[in-house]
What does this fold into?
Amino acid sequence: MSDSVFYKTFERHAHAQGLKGHATHYCPGCGHGLVHKFLAEAIDELGIQNRTVAISPVGCSVFMYYYLDVGNTQAAHGRAPAVAIGHKVANPESIVVSYQGDGDLASIGLAEIVSAAQLGIPLSVVFVNNAIYGMTGGQMAPTTLMDMKTSTSPWGRDRLTGQPMKMAELIAQLDGSVYVERVALYDAKQRTRAKKAIRKALQMQVENRGFAFVEVLSECPTHLKLTPQEAENWVRDQMVPIFPLGVKKELEAEPWFHMNKPNFDPQTLLQQIEAAAEASERFSPGFPAHLHPEDISLKLAGSGGDGAQTAAMLITRAAINEGFDSTHIPSYGPESRGGTSYADVHVAKTEVLSPASPNPHVLIAFNAPSLAKFGPAVQRGGAVIYDSSVISEPPKLDAGVKMYGVPFTQIALDLGKLLVKNIVALGALQAATNIFPADTFLTAIRSALAHKCSLIPLNEEAFKWGQKAVADVNGR
Amino acid sequence: MEQTQAKTRERPKPFVLPEYCKGCGRCIEACPKHCIQLGTEINPESGLVPVIIDLEICNGCGLCYMACPEPYGLEKALVELMPDVEELDRHAYFGDSKPERPQPQPIPDTAVPLPKMEPLVTKGSYASAIGALLAGCRHFFGYPITPSTEGAELMAKLLPKLDGVFLQAVSEVATVNLMYGCGGAGLPCMTFTSSPGFSLMLEGVSYMIGAELPGVFVNVMRGGPGLGNIGPEQADIKLACRGLGHGNTHAITLAPSSPQEMLDLTMLSFQLAFKYRNPVVILADGYLGQMTGRVTLPDHLIRPGIPEWAVYGDEMHRGNLICSIQLSEPDLEQHNLHLNKKYQQMIANEQRADLYYCEDAEILIVAANTPSRMAKGAVQTLREQGVRAGLFRPVTIWPFPIEALRPLLSQVERIIVVEASNGQLEDELRLALSHAEATNVPRIEHVRHFGGVLPQQQEIIDKVASSEMLMA
It folds into this structure.
């Protein structure tokens, strides 16, 4: 028995019945068996049998896992490189071989192989190019030669059915590949080169140097309708002129690939998610039942960039800090800036039921369309706080709704920073409704700006001006 | 010269095990000494014609061996040890058919206690990502798609700080196959996606189910069909419950209704995914992904182990195989029966529901995800008005929690299914009732919305009232 990493008996091949225990499923003269053999020998020579994970593709080599005594995963058609990366990042110590045929790699799986080669995480890709679909029965492959007749190019491949895809050259162009070679199997010299190339592709991964790709021009005597010897000659005479052999890329790549073991330390995680052990200070004497005994509904509406969502988030944070339940749902157009931007907020004594605010108790409107749209929906006895810098003529609403025109924008501009107009609005909300004490809001604002401390004084100022503006309105 | 001859004699020389030679003749061309020729006799076992080797002038160069595509077609032996192939005991030659290896042992998860922390104020997608981190997930694969992207963004921010892996895939197709690889290695992994992206993943989900791989898919459902919009919808219930790719597939499908449940159910999903070796789907909706609320952290996190079946890429797991192909029909039937048995176990053990005022309910509102919040509000209002309404909220949509519903059927007069889809939740309810052979099924009505519009509390109340008037 020779040294290699083939199973001694192919248990997975039809339960090793009859000859299947020691013979492959490949047709006589098929190149796949040779490539398997070179791969098996290289794995043995490099001493990586225990670390190797081989990805079997879809195609004739779908059953590679019958033969190689390594960790085996069988992948969906074309997806072997993605599956391989999944294995590699799960265990960076593993040596992952993605083995693919031409339909698999150069047609359905183009996106996966191209992105894997560009990414450059160390993998060893063995690409068997025999210019035809074998398993499905001799259909045209992306690598089928011009004028070649297949069952789906019965009149010969022509310009309308494409031109042979040169994968080794393509992969060599991508930044992540460090070693790319095209080899063949048609004579002893080529087989020696092929074996060496496959071994090298593995070695590049063992040494953590990068992504390696070996394209093997291979024989499919069955679908070429040739004898094995004729098929060897056909590869040499017909394929090689279109798919030139040789090294396409070989970088002096330094070992770079390294991943730490994942961290499961509780303190690190809690710190990363910014969980606090200490409760925020509470200032509220109790639930603001003067607005509603159980569940207060607010809506903040404006254009993207008005800061409605941030203000809504601060109200939610403030409410939860006070021990109430609260929710915030944003709703905006797909634009990052300038589109509509609405926020529904609930503050509940125990539990927010419906988080939507179709009929809010409080509306904060940053522009006229928002006020026109949502103003009429505000509940009787509720409050509307709007930006009087941009809304000069507010619509007439139900007499039971209190209106507070506060120049959010003008105050913010006077403070030198337009962005704080939403904080002005929060100050106005506090003064108009007394939903929470000012300190509740200020604490939430400071906590939200913990990473931008220099902005805290300006925001506090904006809040106070908002409060003052309401006091002025009330006083008038 | 003598030395060369001595060396040549020491080299092993080829011999053919005739039943394993397919007679392709590649060795014939390879032999520089022309020692090999096509045979003339058909081998009775293989039905093929093996080659014949004349060792007379063979110098043991090994080129024939290198040209043989069969692992065991051509073998090598030193001349003095050359076996008589006709007499050779094949069983002894290849050894015992099953390799002697230690059975891989499971490396169990460990629960690491967490100190008591203040609740987080965070949005649903973030809560789900945090749930995944707490469940021991350190591998995230995904493709950006609104409205699920925030979850992926938080993973991109946090995973590098936890020595985990965030990998933005070239597509959703690649995403699910990255998960297939990572899940195949036995590690917890996940993705966030939204409806069109989930559609793209389904082939891979079918492969994961076939190969029995764990993985968590958080689908923040948006409006469809086609590109639709980014508003909330629940129109992927059919996909998750009845259409997980090709073949006989099922996966536990969870429907959270709050940021808190986004965290809790994501943690649970990982546990279930590994318990059953099957993907788990979390169906959230666009509102829930974006909804900010109070989220209490659990009292522990999980440090994951490695299951015994994994293809991890080490000695212990070398004998393992991840695959979904079963060429023989009886084998594939057995595999399907095995999967069906797992589905039955899920149906028996994993039904979950949340019941609100159901004990004496005459009108039962059935709703999941964000619409269940509106329904809850409606139930509260209806109760204040003296109407005996209750909310039955499936937390698992598949398996549908029929066991919790069954005892209510005798008292309930009307069921109103509230959903943001064209009856996909109602279909699950009706199927479950049918399978349960429930005879006393009340009238089933519905409130439905589409395209990013959600049912509102008032229209649920109106629906209850309007029918009540009809009945009166």
User: Anything to note?
Assistant: Chain B has 16 helices and 22 strands. Residues 329-349 of chain B form the longest helix (21 residues). The mean pLDDT of chain B is 94. Chain B touches chain A through 121 residues (CB under 8 Å).
